[in-house]
Please model this.
Amino acid sequence: DASDIEKGTYPHYMLKEIDEQPFVMRRIIQKYQDENGQLTIDPQIIQEVLNADRIYIIACGTSYHAGLVGKQLIEKWAKIPVEVHVASEFSYNMPLLSEKPLFIYISQSGETADSRAVLVQTNNLGYKAITITNVPGSTLSREADYTLLLHAGPEIAVASTKAYTAQIAVLAILAVATAKAKGIELDFDLVKELAIVANVMEMLCDAKEEMEKIAREYLAVTRNCFFIGRAVDYYVCLEGALKLKEISYIQAEGFAGGELKHGTIALIEDGTPVIALATQEHVNLSIRGNVKEVVARGANPCIISMRGLETEEDRFVIPAVHPMLTPLVSVVPLQLIAYYAALHRGCDVDKPRNLAKSVTVE
Ligand code: G6P
Model:
């Protein structure tokens, strides 16, 4: 659809694509719903998942980060062990595979050479593969046995945003559909939960001014920035840091809350920005303890928490969603903060230096 690839009134594709996320969530629900309103996945794909004793997710960059979240969803809901691997390492450092592995390739473009190289290998070994991609007919889609589409619409900005949340949503649907096929009872309705996610995304997209303020306050002049989080927040921190690095050229690192102190805390100086995510109840106290540790070394903390877990020191509170689906919403402020940080620093948001939208060389 041509209107999809117009920037319209937006100054940058990235901002447009961030804003499209609520719409993409709703479209994914619609595309994966059957006539009874139930979320459903091609039964052949479900059969492959049921046949597997272990799932290997292979991806690069932002798609790899979505895979890390997907692992949690599949293990927790569908009770199948999952490993997530960076494609470029996997090709020569293949782990000892289980007896009945199933491969899931996550690639927005479906053209990433590193991921394709692994797919060629696993195809040669005779293993089944599913590609989760935004581009029907792409190389990874054609060469895998099955495809799950993201329905995110064309993503033009080099820094991936709506594809990341779409990938997590599709992985959530796969996890729930598998659980259902295994007769595992889940105490929530994913259609409802994703609809809530879409609404919360919308509210977050309306918080641009606040995100701009945070970017200006914390990131206008700094040379580095840390993101800390525990449990699934940690994976979102990896993605938040990648977004910031890609487009603002600030050296940013995502850390597991408990790990920063084992070395990297040496880098904390007076005023070093530390963005902390606190969306998980079971680690809320410990992540806040980690914030205290860095504040004691001079860090300038910016806590982004979820409603119900917030304290007075928090800079921004995200409306509550299902605890396993928080990455779908907590990433939005981080995308916006990266966007505004890049703007403030005069960077070319849509076409950052040294990067390509899809990397077709190994
Ligand atoms: C490139 C892009 C990244 C992207 C990665 C994987 O490096 O700059 O934004 O995450 O490739 O791309 P894919 O299309 O396979 O998801």
Observations:
- The pocket of 6-O-phosphono-alpha-D-glucopyranose is lined by residues 60-63, 107-109, 112, 115, 158, 160, 355, 357-359 (CB under 6 Å).
- The longest strand covers residues 101-107.
- The longest helix spans residues 162-181.
